[in-house]
């Protein structure tokens, strides 16, 4: 099995070295040719999530490392494209560090650079989805000279921008996601997370897409296994702590390679407005591509996404002028970017700190409430009933008895409110 030992390709000391020591990243390559494409998947995803795009670019989904691989003359070598897709640390067959501090988009971008070095790739087109798009941004800022083009699918700027659209439906999905313990439960919630409801309701023959995809998801999750708590918490930390500084954005813009920001209009996880904002900051390098899909737009609108990616590669190969490439307005991009930079500098850290404090306060408040309720209940249960005259009892009810009645789970169940 092909693994990249990250530590062998990084010359670092101290804390930085600890994040690379012993880390192995599982990867697969597909197709042959001078055009190199590195694909970086998102949170809780594995390398094979890029299947529809790998097939479109190379003509095959069979990895190069499989001994039984039979070369197809109409496949990878003919198109001249070699693709590498891998499992991020914390997922799939790659190493799973136990410390949250070992998961940041910068650290994971260095994993990607190590893979490029391991493969001997000097430059590559870099495509990232969701968290993988955040990692791709960091990668492009670190080594802009090694990037041929950049595709950011369903991306946000990280931090509070990772918070999904707050409504009843999304809140329900989030709660189901956190409670999912089996492949069946996880598959059911993933469908609502990845696709638009319109797409899931479509019929393919006698079955809906939801029914067909559900079986595929259960099979896929069962084969790869549920993500570990360390991996999930770590990758969530990477998304939450991600932030692109003005200097990093400028280094990407100044590099001069074309960028496609591709997003589904019905994405409930990564909101479209954040992707548009990032695209405007990357003007004139960026082109905004809006599609009628959800978070996993690469599967829901496969042909349109593949077309956009091929156009991006062609624009890079032909050295298309960036002002001809972009579809953004110079007036809107310049004005919004300057306003956004000033606003974010002043308020981003405040918002992040406020949200974190609010979460801690809510947990602390409910913890105290539960503790106080338990103490109160135990205290009331210890109280002995007071004997009173019958006449008085009829006039003044025994409040201890009423309180016990309200708190008693037996009474609640018998009354049908349990």
Word description of this protein:
This protein is of the alpha/beta class and 418 residues long. The chain has helices at 15-18, 51-58, 76-79, 105-119, 131-142, 168-179, 183-194, 197-201, 209-224, 229-241, 246-255, 272-281, 297-300, 302-317, 322-325, 330-382, 390-395, 399-407, 409-414; strands at residues 3-5, 24-30, 35-40, 81-86, 124-129, 147-153, 203-204, 207-208, 259-264, 286-291. The strands form two sheets. The chain has an eight-stranded mixed beta sheet with strand order 1-2-4-3-5-6-9-10, with helices on both faces. 52% of the residues lie in helices and 12% in strands. The model is unreliable at 340-350 and 388-415 (pLDDT under 50).
Features:
single chain; 418 residues; 8-stranded mixed sheet; two-stranded antiparallel ribbon; 19 helices; 52% helix
Shape label? globular
The overall strand count is 10
Sequence of strands across the biggest β-sheet: 1-2-4-3-5-6-9-10
Proportion of β residues?
Answer: 5-15%
User: How helical, in percent, are the residues?
Assistant: 40-55%
CA radius of gyration is 26 Å
H/I helix tally: 19
End-to-end separation? 54 Å
The largest pleated sheet is described as: 8 strands, mixed
Mean pLDDT: 83
Structural class: alpha/beta
Query: Helix and strand succession?
Result: EHEEHHEHEHEHHHEEHHHEHEHHHHHHH
Low-confidence stretches: 340-350, 388-415
């Amino acid at each position: 099995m092909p693994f990249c030992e990250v530590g062998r390709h990084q010359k670092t000391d101290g804390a930085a070295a600890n994040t690379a020591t012993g880390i192995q990243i599982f990867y697969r390559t597909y197709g042959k040719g001078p055009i190199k494409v590195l694909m970086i998947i998102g949170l809780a995803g594995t390398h094979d999530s890029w299947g529809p795009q790998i097939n479109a670019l190379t003509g095959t989904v069979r990895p190069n490392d499989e001994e039984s691989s039979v070369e197809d003359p109409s496949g990878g070598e003919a198109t001249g494209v070699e693709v590498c897709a891998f499992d991020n640390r914390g997922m799939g067959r790659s190493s799973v560090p136990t410390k949250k501090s070992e998961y940041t988009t910068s650290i994971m971008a260095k994993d990607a650079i190590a893979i490029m070095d391991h493969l001997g790739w000097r430059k590559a087109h870099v495509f990232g989805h969701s968290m993988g798009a955040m990692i791709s941004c960091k990668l492009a800022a670190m080594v802009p000279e090694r990037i041929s083009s950049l595709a950011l699918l369903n991306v946000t700027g990280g931090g509070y921008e990772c918070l999904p659209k707050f409504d009843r439906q999304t809140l329900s999905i989030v709660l189901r996601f956190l409670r999912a313990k089996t492949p069946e439960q996880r598959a059911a919630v993933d469908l609502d997370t990845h696709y638009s409801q319109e797409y899931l309701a479509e019929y393919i023959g006698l079955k809906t897409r939801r029914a067909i995809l559900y079986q595929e998801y259960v099979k896929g999750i069962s084969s790869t296994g549920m993500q570990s708590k360390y991996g999930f918490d770590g990758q969530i930390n990477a998304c939450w702590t991600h932030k692109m500084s003005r200097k990093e954005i400028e280094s990407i813009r100044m590099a001069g390679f074309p960028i496609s920001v591709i997003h589904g209009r019905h994405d409930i996880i990564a909101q479209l407005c954040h992707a548009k904002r990032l695209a405007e900051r990357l003007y004139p390098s960026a082109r905004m591509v809006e599609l009628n899909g959800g978070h996993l737009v690469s599967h829901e609108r496969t042909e349109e996404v593949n077309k956009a990616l091929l156009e991006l590669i062609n624009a890079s190969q032909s050295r298309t002028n960036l002002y001809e490439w972009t579809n953004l307005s110079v007036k809107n991009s310049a004005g919004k970017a300057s306003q956004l930079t000033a606003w974010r500098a002043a308020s981003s850290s405040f918002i992040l700190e406020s949200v974190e404090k609010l979460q801690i306060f809510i947990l602390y408040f409910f913890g105290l409430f539960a503790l106080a309720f338990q103490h109160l209940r135990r205290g009331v249960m210890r109280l002995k009933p007071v004997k009173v005259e019958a006449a008085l009892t009829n006039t003044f009810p025994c409040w201890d008895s009423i309180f016990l009645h309200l708190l008693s789970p037996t009474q609640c169940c018998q009354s049908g409110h349990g």
